[in-house]
Amino acid sequence: PAPAETEAGQPAAPPPGAACEPPSKALPHSPTAPGGQQLEKWSCGRMSASSDPVVIVAAARTAIGSFNGALAAVPVRDLGSAVIKEVLKRAAVAPEEVSEVIFGHVLAAGCGQNPVRQASMDAGIPYSVPAWSCQMVCGSGLKAVCLAAQSIGIGDSSIVVAGGMESMSKAPHLIHLRAGVKMGEMPLVDSILCDGLTDAFHNYHMGMTAENVAKKWQVSREDQDKYAVLSQNRTESAQKAGYFDKEIIPIFVSSRKGLTEVKTDEFPRHGSNIEGVSKLKPYFLTDGTGTVTPANASGINDGAAAVVLMKKSEAANRGLTPLAQIVSWSQVGVEPSIMGTGPIPAIKQAVAKAGWSLEDVDVFEINEAFAALSVAITKELGLNPEKVNIQGGAIALGHPLGASGCRILVTLLHTMERKGGHRGVAALCIGGGMGIAMCVQRG
After folding, report:
1. Residues 139, 331: contact at Cβ < 8 Å?
2. DSSP state for residue 187 in the 8-state scheme
3. In 10 A of CB 186, how many CB atoms?
4. Are 11 and 294 in contact (CB under 8 A)?
5. 168 in helix, strand or coil?
6. pLDDT by residue (tens digit) across 358-383?
7. Cβ atoms of 266 and 70 closer than 8 Å
């Protein structure tokens, strides 16, 4: 993501350079090695062989707020509790019937002990129900759903609420004073940069990994800008058509003027065009070779998303029609310097585990961390662009780190319901060099 906004209304990237401590040891592989050859380990889950698969019976999200925007004053526990309450309502599940709550959450500094537990109990779920967070950076929200499916699949749980939440606007600046400061200045460290947007192995911003991918996969500045404008235009059309309305729940924000209802994604730039986008200068490489700009990157945002999972038989007993069943998932490792290519092997593995071909998939939701990555993934996999992020993606909607994995799943489920799609794939790249993907099926 590129985390602030310029006067032109586009998100502005943070200053490049060291944001955290330098890496303590060298990587086992060269950062220049081809992305397709850097798969180190992968693990997959497959649910389709089960006669009683895990299904998703409810899915909802908040609107996505801009950095220091409409949701900036809302604590992350409140964002989380709001979506938990809503999906339980939609699934007609009583809070005491929940077995477990699992949420992705990345920027937890200063949020208090176990923010997911806070959100769970604020939503009325009893203290007897465990609630916890998982941290897989951008993939956290989708990984939480994988963990929920595993828990149900092996019989540990019967009903799980899974999702993700993030308030990047409330992420604090940090300073280490345990040993005291005897002389001189002590700099503040931005926890967004340090814990969310800086590669821990090369000590540079995620934007540099996008530049690496652009170079290796020969993605031009023009390609990236065209993709960014397409994302913005698709989101604008979807908003005007009301396609997001069913998946978004309202959040009421207190102010001196009273309560304000937030129910529309705040980050999209309506009227985006190639002329305006092409005027922005590359941010991360300023030597004349750069291609990544604030306009063709995702943003820093606030939001939450959640789903309710149970066995298909449990849904039938309750008279619920599932939105989809979880067929398979995959998580992979790639070289950190080209982390944005993680979805390439992840999607291949998940689709293979499902017993599908890529051509069998009706809709793909692939997180748009940077346009360079989206173009490279689509090109490498040979995907039909008309099936990928058909309502726009994170370049337009925004990228609240811990929430995005579940957000794209929620959008995928509602898109498939609206269009009548049968098979869908949700996938994300992950900082540090990973990818995650999930296959879902309707009917």
Report:
1. yes
2. -
3. 10
4. yes
5. helix
6. 999 999 999 999 999 999 999 999 99
7. yes
d(CA 398, CA 385): 20
Distance between CA 385 and CA 103 in Å, rounded? 31
Residues 6 or more apart in contact with residue 64 via CB below 8 angstroms: 265, 266, 267, 301, 302, 303, 397, 398, 400, 407
Q: Is the pLDDT of residue 14 over 60?
A: no
Rounded CA separation 232/228 (Å): 6
Three-class SS of residue 156? Answer: coil
What is the C-alpha to C-alpha distance for residues 147 and 128, in angstroms, rounded to an integer?
A: 19
Residue 284's nearest CA partner among 210, 385, 373, 375 is 210
Query: What average pLDDT does this structure show over 182-187?
Result: 91
Residue 27 is classified by DSSP as: -
Q: How many helices (H) and strands (E) does the chain have?
A: 12, 18
Average pLDDT for 299-307: 99
Q: Are 144 and 117 in contact (CB under 8 A)?
A: no
Tell which residue, 371, 231, 233, 367, has the closest CA to residue 291.
371
The DSSP annotation for 375-388 comes to HHHHHHHT--GGGB
Helix axes 343-354, 371-381, angle to 10 degrees: 40
- Exposed / middle / buried, residue 99 (Cβ in 10 Å: 0-12, 13-18, 19+): middle
Give the residue carrying structure tokens 């077995």: 99
In sequence order, the 6+-apart residues with CB closer than 8 A to the CB of 183 are none
Q: Tell me: pLDDT of 386 over 70.
A: yes
Catalytic residues: 138, 399, 429
Q: Report yes or no: 435 and 343 within 8 Å, Cβ to Cβ.
A: yes
Q: Which residues of 277-315 are buried (b: 16+ CB within 10 A; e: fewer)?
A: bbebebbbbeeeebbbbbbbbbbbbbbbbbbbbbbbebb
- Over residues 27-82, the pLDDT tens digits come to 444 444 444 444 444 566 776 567 899 999 999 999 999 999 999 999 999 999 99
- Phi, psi for 136 (deg, rounded to 5): -130, 40
List all residues 6 or more positions away from 412 whose beta carbon is below 8 Å from its beta carbon. Answer: 363, 365, 424, 425, 426, 440
| Beta-carbon-side half-sphere exposure of residue 421 (alpha carbons within 13 Å) | 26
Contact criterion met (CB below 8 Å) for 61 and 305: yes
HEC secondary structure over 52-81: CCEEEEEEEEECCEECCCCCCCCCHHHHHH
